[in-house]
Amino acid sequence: MFSYDFVVDPGEMRSFLVKPPTTKGNADDMRRAWALVVMRGMAAVRLAQGFQFVLRPHKATEVGERKNYHRTKAFMAEEDLTPKPAGAAEVLRSTKNPVYLSMSNEIHCISYTGEAIQVRRYVRRMPQIHPFEYQCLIWPKLGGGYTELSTTFTSHGLENYGWNR
Question: What is the spatial distance between Cα 102 and Cα 125, in angstroms, rounded to a whole number?
Answer without folding.
Answer: 15
